[in-house]
Amino acid sequence: MPAISEIISKLPGTKTSIFSVMSKMANDHNAINLSQGFPNFETDQKLKDLVTEAMNNGFNQYPPDSGVHELREQIVSKIKLLYGKSYDANTEITVTSGATEALYTAITAFVNKGDEVIVLKPAYDTYEPTIKLSGGIPIQIQLKGENYTVDWDEVRSAISSKTRMIIINTPHNPTGTILSEKDMLQLQEILSDTNVILLSDEVYEHLIFDKEQHQSASKFSELSERAIVCASFGKTFHNTGWKTGYCVAPEKLMKEIRKIHEVTVFSVNHPMQRAYAEYLKNADNYLKLSKFYQTKRDLFLNLIKDSKFTYTASKGTYYQLLNFSGITDENDVNFAERLVKEYGIASIPVSVFNINEKDNSQLRFCFAKTDDTLEMAAEILCKL
């Protein structure tokens, strides 16, 4: 039997994720890991107890492929409470294996060979590989300035007869910025006479600061009719390893998404869905999160206020960008690597997410950490 002589990669230019690279370096050098986006504190014991209870009550076999009905009903209630939009739990909600699967199924369901998808850069690094796997063409638009604002005229100009989808992310990873109501209304107007699908990545919807309001695509009547909104329980409730998320969309879109979901993972862990369904009944479990994380953001920024880093306070997510141009003229990748090896602290260089790896001398730090961890990290940063 002949050996396989040649492998033709579907993603020939794709490198190992920067998150994996920096986390491995952090482990190798025993560094404080403020790179990958995960909390280093425990999820609520009540939620863990609910998982155990569900297991003990026999919910250990396949759940419905679209998700446990009780959980889908709670998602509907949450969206109605927060954004005033009513979705149908039976036909417009699907529970997914994390938000990444929601994004994957949404792109795969609608993007065909030659279709164009507008991606605002910097962007989460799964968008473009998934577009390419479907034969689509990413159309990159760089967000402007160190505060990463959208040039909506540029977005309008990028839309053509080949445009199938546009992807937005608010609150935004990696920059910690948010889209305003004015931004969303401009987007709504731009898309009004098109057949473009909106994919809205809203995994940090409950992590928004300074009394700002999250502007979900679900809030805007015309946008919601073309929008697929993706969300994450793992990011929300400090348990990223549980890999549970969901997406919501009008029935005509969700019908196609569920086809891909069914042949990709079929269904999602049953006992955890039961636990989330019960946990969501108390709205305080998600409404209190903005205050919780703003306290951590403010602590981190106060601890580094005398450092040589400069910054604009994050408006959402649990990430903070720090500008290091007052410390070194190294590029951000080299500086990030040196911080791990020589100082024992890991971050994410932002240039890897930008068009042509545009370098604004910024690193991303995750502040979803215990106060002790933030204090140790700040002590290092203040010495630079």
UniProtKB/TrEMBL annotation:
Its cofactor is pyridoxal 5'-phosphate. Gene3D superfamilies: Aspartate Aminotransferase, domain 1, Type I PLP-dependent aspartate aminotransferase-like (Major domain). Residues 31-380 form the Aminotransferase class I/classII large domain. GO terms for molecular function: transaminase activity. InterPro entries: Aminotransferase_I/II_large, Kynurenine-oxoglutarate_AT, PyrdxlP-dep_Trfase, PyrdxlP-dep_Trfase_major, PyrdxlP-dep_Trfase_small. Keywords: Aminotransferase, Pyridoxal phosphate, Transferase. It comes from the Bacteria. This is Methionine aminotransferase. It comes from Christiangramia sediminicola.
